[in-house]
Amino acid sequence: MKIGCHVSISGSIDKAVDNAVERECSAFQIFTRNPRGWHAKELTDEDIANFKSKLKTSKIDRLATCAHMPYLPNLATPKDEGFEKSVQTLIKEVERCAQLGIPYLVTHLGSHLGTGEEGGIKRLIKGLTKAGKTKNDVVILLENTAGQKNSVGSSFKQLGEIFNQLKPAKKFGVCFDTCHAFVAGYDLRTEEKVNETFDEFDKYVGIKNLKILHLNDAKGDIGCNLDRHYHLGLGGIGEKGITAVVKFANKRKIPIILETPIDDDRDDFKNIKKAKEFA
Ligand code: MN
Ligand code: MN
Ligand code: ZN
Which end of the chain is more exposed for a tag (fewer CB within 10 A), N or C? Predict the structure, then answer.
C-alpha cells in the first residue's frame, strides 16, 4: 500500500521528505510554497537537487507524491483580474512540480461567487486547458468538493462533465476526497455504500482517472456540506467505511494521502498507523 500524509516544507522544501520518512509514509503531499499568499519564491537549483536526492534515497516512490495548489486561486471566479492571476498561479505550480519531479498537482475547482455554474465552469475549463498546454508530464488532478455554496465540482456528474472536456486528456486526472464526497451527500459508511459510491464515481468520472485518494473522515454528517476533516474512523464516515475505502484504494494501487487534523486526540503518526491497521 502507498500511504502518507500532507507534510510541511517548513525550513526548506527537502524537509518534506524528512517529515514523510519520519512518519513512515510511502506517499506524501506538499504545498510547494506558502499556500496562503499569491507570491512564490522561485525554487533554486539547490532546492531542487536536495529535494530530488532525498526522495531518491528514501524508499518513497516518486509516483506516489503530489503537490496541492495554494488556497487563493479561484479558477471559476467571474473577476477578470482574479481569474488571470489564478491561471498564472496554476501554470506556475505545474512548472514547479515539473522542476521537482512531482507527477501530480491537486486543484480545487473554484467558486463562481454566485454568478452561476455555467459561466464558472466555462472559465474553469478555459483556465485548466491553458495550464494543460505546458510542456511537461505533470498531471493536474481535479478534486471533488464538499459542496459549499457556489462551489463547482461536488457532484460526480458535474465533475465528470468538466473532466471530459479537458484536453489533452493525459494532462488531467482526478483526486477523490472522502470527507468532501461524504459531506456532499455520498454515503461511505459501509462497504456496500462505498462500492455504490465508487460505482457512481466510475460512471461519470472513471476510476481509471483516479490518481490520488485523500483519506479524511468528516467532522460533520452526510450531506452537511461542511469541509471539516476529522481523524480516521472517529467522524461521520466511521471505521467500517474508512476501512472499506482503504481496501478499495489498495486493490487499485492508488496512493492514499491523509489531510487529517493534529490535536490532543491524534497526530499524523497515529492516523497513518490507524489507516495501516484498517488495511
Ligand atoms: Mn484539497
Ligand atoms: Mn482534500
Ligand atoms: Zn477539505
Answer: C
What pLDDT digit, counting tens, does each position of 146-195 carry? 999 999 999 999 999 999 999 999 999 999 999 999 999 999 999 999 99
Alpha carbon of 80 to ligand 2 centroid (Å):
27
Q: In a 3-state reduction of DSSP, which class is residue 218?
A: strand
Note if 36 is an active site residue: yes
Question: Catalytic annotation on 177?
Answer: yes
Q: Give the active site residue among 14, 93, 143, 217.
A: 143
Q: How far is the CA of 176 from the centre of ligand 1 (A)?
A: 9
Per the residue annotation, which of 33, 123, 189, 229 is the catalytic one?
229
Average pLDDT over residues 209-215: 98
Torsion, Cα of 44, 45, 51, 56 (10° steps)? 170
Ion ligand 2: residue ranges with CB closer than 5 A: 177, 214
State the Cα–Cα distance between residues 240 and 48, nearest whole angstrom: 41
Of 54, 51, 166, nearest to 97 (Cα)?
Answer: 51
CA distances from residue 82 to 48, 122, 256, 258 in whole angstroms, order as listed: 29, 15, 32, 30
23 as an active site residue: the answer is no
- Alpha carbon distance 121, 163 (integer Å): 11
pLDDT at site 253: 97
Q: Is 200 a catalytic residue?
A: no
Three-state SS for 104? strand
Q: Is 143 a catalytic residue?
A: yes
CA 103 to chain centre: 13
123 part of the active site: no
Residue 226 is predicted with a pLDDT of: 96
Identify each DSSP E strand in the chain by its residue range.
3-6, 27-30, 65-68, 104-107, 139-143, 172-177, 210-215, 217-218, 229-230, 256-258
The yes-or-no answer on residue 112 being catalytic is no
133 half-sphere exposure, CB direction, 13 A CA radius: 7
